[in-house]
Amino acid sequence: MAAPPSASAAQDSAGPSQRATQLPIGAAVLIGGALLGFGAIGISSDAGYGGVGPNFLPWLVAGMLALCGALLIWEAMTGGFRQMGDLDGAEHGHWPGFVWVSAGILANAALITTIGFILSCALCFVLAVRGFKSAEGRLDLSLKALVTDALIGMAIAAPVFWMFTQALAINLPGLTSTGWL
Question: Can you give the pTM of this predicted structure?
Fold first, then answer.
């Protein structure tokens, strides 16, 4: 009966080629955290009504990214990303799905000031669902599916819009000037 592999065996399995691909991932995450922290320097630290200033979240995210980057580098240097199983996904990306999701994001960015936050986010949701379903081989372009997904998208976006505009007094582009659409 063979003994189970030890931690040193896992450490030995990470060769130089594996480290060469894993170290840049950790370095990129660490650099991303540093760049976000550098950008957060220019944000005012004046505390708002909750005692937290507008620079709190960028600093929090920068710190967490830096921590994750450092941990990824440590993992790569001490044996590679542990418990990394065999790839079970497709060998190549699903380009039609990528195009659907990208179109949704770009449409949202282009239309948010024209048709408002709720409708532009609902459109983004509809297009993203088309992309994810096409990757699963279940692309449905029927009117019923489009309307259903648009209603779900609006049901998700509307409470977010109202929370930001009514409860937090943060301006988001609306369809009307009432603040409710």
Answer: 0.56
